[in-house]
Structures are given as structure tokens and as C-alpha cells.
Amino acid sequence: MTKAELIDAVAQNANVSKHDAERTISAFFELVVASAKKGEKVSWPGFGSFTSSTRKARTGRNPRTGEPVEVPASMAIKFSASSTLKAELNPTRK
Asked: What's the CA gap between 34 and 83, in Å, rounded?
């Protein structure tokens, strides 16, 4: 699903304008990123949670030459699906 398709679907499901849907979705993602930068967890019960993690600096290898390359420390964002979402995506078969 593209960004435009997501905005269209949210606007239709929430019965709001596309402009309002786009502003709301953008605000949500901005808040998730801002919270992750602070090291805070953002949770939505029944869906999942977003957390940030720090990757340590390390020595990697250039795949073409095999030379060692220093990879700097960085932050990443992780999403963990809730058990409710996992159950919805993987229903048990009888």
C-alpha cells in the first residue's frame, strides 16, 4: 500500500477529508519519531509498540574489497507486534 492509498483508505474509513487524514497520519509518525529519539516507547494496545535501540560502533568489512570499515554507532527504531495482532495475522487452523 502506498502513502496515497493509505491516506485514501483512512479518509474513507474515518469519513474525513484526505487533507485531514494526511495531517493526522503525518502527526502520528512525527510523534513516534520524536518519542524514539528521546528513548520513549510508543504503544497501541492490540496493535504493537515502537521502541528505539542503539547500535554500537563496530568494525565491518567492505564486501567488494574485504577491507575493514569502521561503522559508527547509530539509533534504529523497532516495531513489536502485540499478541493480539499476531493472533489476527496467524489464526489457528482446525
From this structure: 25
Give how far the C-alpha of residue 67 lies from the chain's centroid of Cα atoms, to the nearest Å.
Answer: 33
Could you list the mean pLDDT of each consecutive 10-residue stretch along the chain, which spans 94 residues? Answer: 95 96 96 93 95 94 94 94 93 70
Q: Is 63 found in the same domain as 36?
A: no
pLDDT at 92: 81
CATH code at position 71: 4.10.520.10
Q: Quickly list DSSP for 25-49.
A: HHHHHHHHHHHHHTT--EEETTTEE
Q: How far apart are CA 24 and CA 75, in angstroms?
A: 25
| Predicted model pTM | 0.74
Size of the chain in residues: 94
